[in-house]
């Protein structure tokens, strides 16, 4: 009887600890501290997108690239210093990641309306990503908040952990699994490519050298703006409606018109084919799963409590 009681107590304690860890982030974290914080982020994001529609995809990508490097801690925002190995110069971000000035503006305006620095740069990235999707007619979700900002960055980890455009399906599955994300998360989050553009150098090999699983007319069309040499930064849209959250990204994959090798890998005879088909014809299901996976991704190793800091300037450690 004593051992049974001890076991029950142990289970209850572990359950309580699990709840404490899970509740580190909450969707009402700033309600009492600064109720104007989230509306201010939304206003600045909408203004930035109204000036440049592409900015929505850029802000979404910043959150993604942040979370895949040691968790969602705003490390991607830190500039290079003698002690900070900036992730901005990593292969996936160098001359590619953008929107930093929008984050700076959000931080400035939020701190002004709150009267002091109370919202973390990591939370700003998470909320700005959600607000960008909503502004481009995508789904909304309750962003869990309370992250704190890192005091370090790692270009090496960024180079190793951010998925590349050349990955095949097994590599993508392993890459996402390392972050605690499953195959549904992989397909749903890849659907973020319903927004935005890619540079020529990221898809040149696909349109010139791949013969399987690529529509020949599509390849020829992309070659017109992406020569075999030069023009590395020339842009092509990741789906036909690059400033609208819809399911055409997945329709493209079914038609063998994925721009990146890593896009088309999701529909290449593997275990993710059926989910791609489902999303290609059901925007409601894709939107629901995307929102769920964004919440899950936003919970990758956040700094909370007394960990990290609330940066005064998102580009540098206090």
Automatic annotation (TrEMBL):
<dbReference type="InterPro" id="IPR019793">
    <property type="entry name" value="Peroxidases_heam-ligand_BS"/>
</dbReference>
<dbReference type="InterPro" id="IPR002016">
    <property type="entry name" value="Haem_peroxidase"/>
</dbReference>
<keyword id="KW-0349">Heme</keyword>
<keyword id="KW-0479">Metal-binding</keyword>
<dbReference type="InterPro" id="IPR019794">
    <property type="entry name" value="Peroxidases_AS"/>
</dbReference>
<keyword id="KW-0408">Iron</keyword>
<keyword id="KW-1015">Disulfide bond</keyword>
<keyword id="KW-0325">Glycoprotein</keyword>
<keyword id="KW-0560">Oxidoreductase</keyword>
<dbReference type="Pfam" id="PF00141">
    <property type="entry name" value="peroxidase"/>
</dbReference>
<keyword id="KW-0106">Calcium</keyword>
<feature type="domain" description="Plant heme peroxidase family profile">
    <location>
        <begin position="24"/>
        <end position="318"/>
    </location>
</feature>
<dbReference type="InterPro" id="IPR033905">
    <property type="entry name" value="Secretory_peroxidase"/>
</dbReference>
<comment type="similarity">
    <text>Belongs to the peroxidase family. Classical plant (class III) peroxidase subfamily.</text>
</comment>
<dbReference type="InterPro" id="IPR010255">
    <property type="entry name" value="Haem_peroxidase_sf"/>
</dbReference>
<keyword id="KW-0376">Hydrogen peroxide</keyword>
<protein>
    <recommendedName>
        <fullName>Peroxidase</fullName>
        <ecNumber>1.11.1.7</ecNumber>
    </recommendedName>
</protein>
<dbReference type="InterPro" id="IPR000823">
    <property type="entry name" value="Peroxidase_pln"/>
</dbReference>
<comment type="function">
    <text>Removal of H(2)O(2), oxidation of toxic reductants, biosynthesis and degradation of lignin, suberization, auxin catabolism, response to environmental stresses such as wounding, pathogen attack and oxidative stress.</text>
</comment>
<keyword id="KW-0964">Secreted</keyword>
<keyword id="KW-0575">Peroxidase</keyword>
<keyword id="KW-0732">Signal</keyword>
<comment type="similarity">
    <text>Belongs to the peroxidase family. Ascorbate peroxidase subfamily.</text>
</comment>
<feature type="signal peptide">
    <location>
        <begin position="1"/>
        <end position="23"/>
    </location>
</feature>
């Amino acid at each position: 009887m004593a051992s049974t009681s001890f076991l029950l107590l142990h289970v209850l304690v572990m359950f309580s600890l699990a709840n404490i860890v899970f509740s580190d982030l909450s969707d009402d974290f700033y309600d009492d501290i600064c109720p104007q914080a989230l509306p201010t982020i939304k206003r600045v994001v909408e203004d930035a997108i109204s000036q440049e529609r592409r900015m929505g995809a850029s802000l979404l990508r910043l959150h993604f690239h942040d979370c895949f490097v040691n968790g969602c801690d705003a490390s991607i925002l830190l500039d290079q210093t003698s002690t900070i190995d900036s992730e901005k110069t990593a292969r996936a971000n160098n001359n590619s990641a953008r929107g930093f000035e929008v984050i700076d503006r959000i931080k400035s305006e939020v701190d002004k309306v709150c009267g002091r620095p109370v919202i973390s740069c990591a939370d700003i990235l998470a909320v700005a990503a959600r607000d960008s999707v909503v502004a481009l007619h995508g789904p909304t979700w309750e962003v869990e908040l309370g992250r704190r900002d890192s005091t370090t960055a790692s270009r090496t980890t960024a180079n190793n952990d951010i998925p590349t455009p050349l990955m095949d399906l097994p590599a993508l599955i392993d890459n996402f699994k390392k972050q605690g994300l499953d195959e549904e998360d992989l397909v749903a989050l890849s659907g973020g490519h319903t927004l935005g553009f890619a540079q020529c150098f990221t898809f040149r090999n696909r349109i010139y050298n791949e013969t399987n699983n690529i529509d020949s007319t599509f390849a020829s069309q992309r070659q017109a703006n992406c020569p075999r040499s030069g023009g590395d930064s020339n842009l092509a849209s990741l789906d036909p409606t690059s400033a609208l959250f819809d399911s055409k990204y997945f329709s493209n994959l079914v038609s063998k018109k994925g721009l990146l090798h890593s896009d088309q890998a999701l529909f290449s005879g593997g275990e993710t084919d059926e989910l791609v088909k489902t999303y290609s014809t059901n925007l409601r299901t894709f939107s629901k799963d995307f929102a769920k996976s964004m919440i899950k991704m936003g919970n990758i190793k956040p700094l909370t409590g007394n960990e990290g800091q609330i940066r005064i300037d998102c580009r540098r450690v206090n």
